[in-house]
Design a protein that fits this description.
The protein is mostly helical. The protein is built from 16 helices and five strands. The protein is about 50% helix and about 5% strand. Strand 2 and strand 3 form a beta hairpin. Helix 13 packs antiparallel against helix 14.
C-alpha cells in the first residue's frame, strides 16, 4: 500500500512538472537529461518536491497572509470590500475543514488528497440541498486563487495537479427576478419620503444603494436635472436625466452647507453616509447600509418576503427597457453603466438622448411621469 502511494505521488509530481514546463513557468536546465530530470523529482534545477522553507507552517498562516494582501487591495481601491468579505468567509470555512480533518499543516492541507476531499465534501453539501452550486463554485475558486497567489509569491514550491479543474462546477441557468409594476407602486405607496426618493433614483438612474450613497452635488445640474458621473462600482461614465418628481424630491432631501460631508448629496438621519464600509483592526469587514435596512423594513411591512432586495429595482428598470427597446439593446448598457463593448466605447455619448427617452418612458410605465406621485409623501428618514 505504501509503495503504491509513493508511486502515485511520484507520477503526480511528474505530471505537475510537465504542466509547469509546458506553461513556461519553469525551464529544464541546459545539459540535463530530460527523462532523468522528470523522474528524479527535478533535483537538478527544480526543487518542487524537495522539503524546505516554502512548505513550512500552517494553512491558516498562509491564508491569512493572502487575506492581508487582499485587505491592502481594498485599501488601495483595487478590490471591493464585498470581495474581501467573501474571501475571508470562504477561506475560514476551508481552514475549519482542515482542522476537523487534522490537516492544518501546510503540506497536509494542500495535498491532492485533502483538496480533493474538500471538493467532495462541498459537492455532497450541494447534492443534499445544503449549498447552492454558485456558492460551491465560489468556495473552490477562492481556495484555488489563494494557492495560486501563494505559488506566485514563492510561498509554495509547487501546485497540486488537482487544482487544474478544481472549480469546474456546472451552474443552473439564472432565473432573473424583478418587481412587477404593481409591486413597485405598492412599495412606493407604503414608503416614507426618503425611501420614495431612493426608489425613484434606483429606477430613474439604475442606481444601487452605493450609487445613491456616493451621489455628489457636483454630479447634479440642479437646473436641468441632468446627472453626469462615473459609476461607483465600475468607474464607467454615465448620464441620466432626472424625472421632475425625482429632481423635486432630491432637492427636498439634499444636504445643506455645513453638514458633515457637504460633497455628498444625501446623508442619513444622523449625518452619516447612507452606506459605509470598513475593515476593523482584526481584519473583520464591517458594512452599514441604511438604505438596505430601511428597505428591509418596508418589505416586511408590505409582506414581500421572498428574498428580493433593493437591487431588484435596477434590474427591473433594465428589463423593462430591454423589452420595450429591443432594436437598441445598447441602451441597457448605458442605463446600467456597464463597460462598453466593441465600438460602443467610441460612440456611447451620442446615444444618451435615446437613453433619456427610454427612462422618460419608464416614468410613465410606473406612474412617475407626473407630480401626482409625490402628493402622498409620508415623511421621515431611515
Amino acid at each position: 500500500m505504501g509503495s503504491q502511494k509513493e508511486a502515485n505521488r511520484r507520477m503526480d509530481a511528474i505530471e505537475e512538472r510537465k504542466v509547469l514546463v509546458k506553461s513556461r513557468k519553469i525551464a529544464i536546465p541546459p545539459g540535463v537529461d530530460v527523462g532523468e530530470w522528470f523522474f528524479t523529482d527535478g533535483q537538478r534545477g527544480f526543487p518542487a518536491e524537495q522539503p524546505g522553507k516554502h512548505k513550512a507552517g500552517s494553512i491558516a498562516t498562509l491564508l491569512n497572509q493572502y487575506l492581508d494582501s487582499r485587505r491592502m487591495a481594498v485599501q488601495a481601491r483595487q478590490l471591493s470590500q464585498a470581495s474581501y468579505a467573501s474571501d475571508k468567509y470562504r477561506l475560514a470555512a476551508f481552514i475549519k475543514y482542515c482542522e476537523r480533518k487534522k490537516a492544518t499543516d501546510l503540506v497536509d492541507a494542500i495535498s491532492p488528497t485533502n483538496l480533493d476531499n474538500y471538493r467532495s465534501y462541498l459537492l455532497s453539501q450541494l447534492s443534499r440541498g445544503r449549498a447552492a452550486a454558485v456558492s460551491v463554485k465560489h468556495s473552490l475558486r477562492t481556495v484555488k486563487a489563494a494557492l495560486l497567489w501563494a505559488y506566485d509569491k514563492e510561498k509554495l514550491d509547487a501546485l497540486p495537479r488537482v487544482l487544474n479543474k478544481y472549480a469546474e462546477i456546472s451552474l443552473p441557468a439564472p432565473r432573473p427576478r424583478f418587481f412587477t409594476v404593481q409591486e413597485v407602486q405598492t412599495l412606493y405607496a407604503a414608503a416614507n419620503d426618503r425611501m420614495r426618493l431612493y426608489i425613484l433614483l434606483a429606477l430613474n438612474c439604475g442606481y444601487t444603494q452605493a450609487d445613491i450613497a456616493t451621489l455628489e452635488h457636483g454630479h447634479i445640474d440642479w437646473q436641468t436635472g441632468m446627472v453626469s458621473r462615473q459609476r461607483h462600482k465600475t468607474g464607467q461614465p454615465q448620464e441620466h436625466k432626472l424625472w421632475p418628481i425625482t429632481l423635486d424630491m432630491l432637492k427636498q432631501h439634499a444636504t445643506q452647507a455645513g453638514q458633515r460631508d457637504p460633497d455628498l448629496a444625501l446623508l442619513g438621519a444622523e449625518g452619516n453616509p447612507l452606506v459605509s464600509e470598513k475593515i476593523k483592526d482584526d481584519g473583520t469587514p464591517s458594512k452599514v447600509d441604511a438604505i438596505g435596512l430601511a428597505f428591509g423594513r418596508l418589505l416586511v411591512k408590505c409582506k414581500v418576503n421572498d428574498g428580493r432586495g433593493f437591487g431588484i429595482f435596477r434590474k427591473t428598470g433594465a428589463d423593462a427597457i430591454a423589452k420595450r427597446f429591443q432594436a437598441t439593446p445598447h441602451l441597457v448598457d448605458l442605463y446600467l453603466a456597464h463597460s462598453p463593448r466593441g465600438m460602443r466605447a467610441h460612440y456611447a455619448g451620442q446615444h444618451y438622448d435615446d437613453l433619456h427617452k427610454a427612462t422618460d418612458w419608464l416614468a410613465s410605465l410606473f406612474g412617475f411621469d407626473g407630480h401626482q406621485a409625490a402628493n402622498a409623501s409620508a415623511g421621515g428618514s431611515p
